[in-house]
From TrEMBL:
It comes from the Eukaryota. Keywords: Membrane, Nucleotidyltransferase, Transferase, Transmembrane, Transmembrane helix. Residues 101-112 have a biased composition (Low complexity). The keyword Transmembrane applies. This is UTP-monosaccharide-1-phosphate uridylyltransferase. It comes from Nannochloropsis gaditana. One of its GO terms (biological process) is UDP-N-acetylglucosamine biosynthetic process. Gene3D superfamilies: 2.160.10.30, Spore Coat Polysaccharide Biosynthesis Protein SpsA, Chain A.
Length: 731
């Protein structure tokens, strides 16, 4: 990609990073954020709310071949229109959005390129599509079509695909192409979306695990949990990890092989059990919605069906599927082809989740059920569950409409930062700014040294965005019902082939991000919208699995940043349990809970022990962890493996050197007392040529030859004592 020139801001050079490959060109209409004074040139802001004329499509009666106008085609189309969510009770939910009338496409001014010359039979609908595409400058799509009678079935399928894409995008393909041209025009001109904005550190709260403030926030969050709902954004495959399946099917760790989806479900069910106990409502449910894509939908459904929804009830878990959008091959927004008769399509981004939640009727259902909060989870960051309860408490205490979960970030670190932006009129917004935009923005305004670390904390004052969000449901639903219908601003990120900035190295598309929702809040609620953040220690709340071993090793070697591989996420998961138990156990814990050795797998150094897992069934708060594990006498060597899984488990005294796995059902009360477990234990070994995919992407496998496993079963009831080397005594 060509180097971009410097842009001058109000103070000093606005460096080229702000217009580099991840530069955001916001697609916002006159009625959407930013307010007056935030808008630079209007040429790069495509109206997501106005009445764009969609394709004028008609439905054909298959029985008689007659042309029947489709009433649905006369309405304004909203994003995600091709999909209705289905719950696992087998019910299909109907969209609740009230469509708005729109203009129809103007008839083609010329029929010089009549599709009749390309096909033996042409429906009125196909002819309208053809004419509209020609009017939009898309005649290249038909240049390689053979004469009528050749590949006519493939040609009919082409028009079916265009019709589907038109229906699934708000305003239709015509709106998509118009917006794309506006955004690409801004990209070619290298316009600055931050013109006139001054950055500053936003208001928020920082919580430290083990502090009294953290414990109090957890307890308040536990009260709010009865009113919570959850959304997992899971539209991507594990290709970046070197994994062929969906990321939700990837094991969080190799000890129990619990998948990410199972882990999230188990946490939600653990919260649900506590909410039922507190409220006395045995029917209370905490809903979970999963946003899938064409790439992940069928595999996600199969995973749930094989595992009986991981214990969730029918209807408690809902899948909403997003659609792809057409790819663009050049700065004129000409549509790209996958082959002669198929348009190339690409993912539109996780910002679709907001509109899909409205379309599905889920936010309305949740409100009617008395819910107050929506917690958005990413697909492969298991540590985020440690932030759920305190973040709910902070949102409730401060009245946040949107609360971003954050982590400390070093200056220059490759992660977005939550930033307050104020325009010349004094209007402000708190929003994520990408790392390669933040430093030049700071230098061009009030921070001449750019993004630098604070001397007292050693970190940037701008907190890192973990992209997990808490929404206040009443106002969230209100905003979704507004003119934009939850459609967040789009951007385009073309990779130009040369200095002409016309051709691309590969096709691009319009994209949107879920964290840009503050712009819709500002538009619908204005200055009344309250947006903030809650920051947690990184070891506690953030260690995603997103990189392959090769990419992770390269990044770690070059900059020392965490590799963010499946292997590093697994070891960080174990270590978080270790550090949590230490924090709640008092001063003696450090001596009794030893650090493990550092071993290198696939050129990535990992702290490989002790491998401790305390499931959500045992404890979801620091107080519960103290009461059930931390107040006892517990000693674990650095090479040991410890798994505690069961709501009734408590540890009074345990001395472990080896592997000890204890599982029990919800009606069993199990006390570990005077247990001294000794065995060779489970160990790690390099993944060999016969390794399964889950082992290969980690670089190691777990050898499970020796250890003590006590599994009382899900049906066990009564009191049990585990003592000695794992002997079980029924009380």
């Amino acid at each position: 990609m060509e180097a971009a020139p410097h842009i001058r801001g109000s103070r000093g050079p606005f460096k080229s990073a702000i217009i580099a490959s991840s530069f955001l060109f916001f697609a916002c209409g006159a009625s959407i954020w930013p307010p007056r004074g935030f808008r630079g040139s209007s040429t790069h802001r495509a109206n997501t709310c106005g009445f764009f004329p969609p394709l004028r499509l008609l439905k054909t009666s298959l029985s008689a071949g007659t042309i029947v106008p489709s009433s649905a085609d006369c309405f304004f189309r909203r994003r995600g229109g091709a999909t209705s969510p289905t719950s696992f009770s087998g019910k299909t939910q109907s969209p609740t959005t009230n469509p708005k009338p729109t203009l129809s496409a103007s008839p083609s001014p010329t029929s010089a390129s009549s599709i009749a010359l390309k096909m033996n039979t042409v429906s009125k609908e196909e002819d309208d599509i053809f004419k509209t595409l020609i009017d939009l400058g898309q005649d290249h799509l038909f240049q390689d079509w053979p004469p009528a009678g050749e590949a006519d079935d493939a040609k009919h399928n082409f028009f079916l695909q265009v019709q589907q894409l038109d229906k699934s995008y708000p305003g239709g393909i015509m709106a998509y192409i118009h917006k794309a041209r506006d955004l690409l025009r801004a990209a070619v001109a290298q316009e600055n979306p931050f013109e006139g904005m001054t950055p500053s550190v936003p208001d928020g709260q920082t919580l430290t695990y083990g502090s009294s403030e953290f414990a109090a926030a957890e307890e308040k969050g536990l009260r709010e949990a009865a009113h919570a709902t959850f959304v997992v954004v899971a539209g991507g495959l594990g290709e970046r990890l070197g994994y062929g399946g969906i990321k939700l099917a990837l094991p969080v760790e190799s000890t129990t092989s619990t998948t990410y989806l199972e882990f999230y479900a188990s946490y939600i069910l653990a919260l649900q059990a506590r909410a039922r106990h507190r409220t006395g409502d045995a029917s209370l449910l905490l809903p979970l919605a999963i946003m899938t894509s064409d790439d992940t939908d069928s595999q996600t459904r199969e995973l749930l069906e094989r595992n009986n929804n991981f214990g969730m009830q029918d209807g408690q878990m809902t899948i909403i599927k997003q659609d792809k959008v057409p790819a663009l091959q050049d700065s004129n927004a000409r549509l790209a082809s996958a082959d002669t008769y198929t348009l190339d399509t690409k993912p539109h981004g996780h910002g679709d989740v907001h509109h899909l939640l409205l379309r599905s009727g889920l936010t309305a259902q949740w409100l009617a059920a008395g819910k107050k909060w929506v917690f958005f989870l990413q697909d492969t960051n298991a540590l985020v569950v440690n932030s759920v309860l305190p973040a709910l408490a902070v949102s409730a205490t401060h009245g946040y409409d949107m609360n971003s979960i954050c982590i400390p970030r070093k200056a220059g670190e490759a992660s977005g930062a939550i930033t307050k932006l104020t325009n010349r009129n004094g209007d402000s917004i708190i929003i994520n700014v990408e790392y390669n935009q933040l430093d030049p923005l700071l230098r061009a305004t009030t921070y001449p040294d750019g993004d630098t670390n604070d001397q007292s904390t050693g970190c940037s004052p701008f907190p890192g965005n973990a992209n997990n969000i808490v929404m206040y449901l009443p106002n969230y639903h209100r905003v979704l019902q507004g003119e934009a219908q939850g459609v967040v601003e789009e951007f385009v990120n073309p990779k130009f082939k040369d200095s002409s900035r016309t051709a691309f190295t590969k096709p691009t598309r319009l994209e949107c991000m879920m964290q840009d929702f503050p712009k819709l809040l500002a538009k619908e609620i204005g200055g009344k919208a309250r947006v903030g953040f809650t920051s947690f220690e990184k070891w506690l709340s953030f260690s995603p699995a997103k990189n392959s071993l090769e990419a992770g090793a390269k990044a770690f070697a070059a900059t020392g940043v965490p590799p963010a591989t499946a292997s590093s996420a697994e070891m960080d998961f174990y270590r978080a349990h270790l550090l949590k138990i230490r924090a709640v156990s008092g001063s003696r814990a450090a001596a009794n809970l030893l650090d493990g050795p550092i071993s290198s797998f696939a050129d990535i150094p990992l702290e490989t022990g002790p491998r401790i897992i305390v499931t959500p069934a045992v404890a979801v708060t620091s107080k519960e962890l103290h009461d059930r594990v931390g107040k006892g006498r517990i000693s674990v060597t650095g090479t040991s493996t410890l798994v505690l899984d069961g709501a009734g488990i408590s540890v009074e005294s345990l001395d472990l050197d080896g592997t000890f796995i204890l599982r029990a059902g919800p009606r069993a009360r199990v006390t570990v007392r005077d247990a001294k477990v000794r065995n060779a234990g489970w160990c790690l070994a390099p993944a060999g040529p016969d390794a399964v995919e889950e082992e290969r992407i980690r670089g190691f496998r777990v050898i499970k030859d020796n250890g003590v496993v006590v599994d009382l079963g899900m049906d066990a009831e009564g009191e049990f004592l585990v003592t000695g080397n794992g002997e079980v005594v029924k009380q």
